[in-house]
Amino acid sequence: LACKCRKSVLSYEYILMFDEVSLKKKLTYDKSRDRIFGYSDIDPKSIADSALVFMIKGVRLKKAQPLGYFLTAGPAKAHFIEQTIRSTIEKLANIGVKIIATVCDQGSNNLMALKTMGVHSDNPCFQIGNNGIVSIIDPPHLIKSTRNCLSNKSNSIQFEEEKCPRWEDIEYVYSRSCNDNFRMCPKLTEGHINVKNKLKVKLASQVLSRSVGTAIRYLYLSGELSSDDTSKFVLKFDDIFDSVNGHELYSTKTLKSAITSQSPHLTFFLDSISWLKTISISRNGKNVTKKFKFVEGWIQTLTGFSKLWTRSNDPVLFTRTFNQDCLENFFGKLRQKTGMGGLLTPQSFIAAFEQLSFQNAVSISDEGNCEEDGTEIMLPAHQILDICLKDKTYLERVEEVEEPPSDKTGQVSKIPKM
Known about the structure:
alpha/beta; 2 domains; seven-stranded mixed β-sheet; 40% helix; globular
């Protein structure tokens, strides 16, 4: 990666993504390497059941590169994530890779790590050296969390003090649409209403969409529904999701266009943050708003995009770039590579990771949970070979590598992957 950056004429900015993937606990002995696979990299006495993966992605370049992984027993601890974020960004800066943002989901360990670094919803930034970095919560995860909260009928959501959206209104729209010759919401299916696959982003975004919101409003105006509160809630989140999903310079939906000096995004972000702060959630008469992190997550993300635009020297900012689709697609490709429908074992994960880290494309089939984003690997295998053969300093560094130390059991210790 350092060789690639040295040969690049332009200085590019990147996003650092990190996420965990579940593994099946299994110890495997590799006779050819004389190595046992399956122990945690952090606690060698424990058997790994997940892997924490780090990847960088270009802000303007459609390029990404998996950086490394750590096998862990259970979710990685917050302090370990924090330390790894810091050291990774510092090491990348040393080779000319400038990180301007991080993207992750709202796992409790991720949130605690970011909080330790000074990140909060109203100021989603942290400092490493002279670099100010913005923390974005993955928008696809946020739209799914929003849908999950609304679809749970034990929850009572209020916004703007007295307005109460109801999942029953969406169920009615679906039922009404199924019985009409002309379907108001043709994309709605049973899978959207009785949510079993909570990981599919499109099942959430198609429920919280303009077509559904408009249909609810129509049924309210025609007297079939008693309130249009659900319509207002759905339409607002449709706009919010559009605003963080811009991938074209111009779109028929204005907020789904790129951020420019002429676009309404900054004003919309400010208005939406104020609106989000009116949301409260209760259950059995008890206020449980703090238990649902999606509201704070949206505030943090919209504030983060405002910060990114203010700091940017570019004439446009494509908001869809700042999500984890690339990493999620990589996870999907890992599973496909092994030919297993279930969980990866540590050994199959490592083998697939090492191979896929140097393949050209990061794409998956239609079975994935998110959209294919067309991102390619920065360092295809043929380029690495070409760089290594031409770069004399690489050969010099290879000669300096020492034999990895052995532990007390006589096994060769694992070489750090970061």
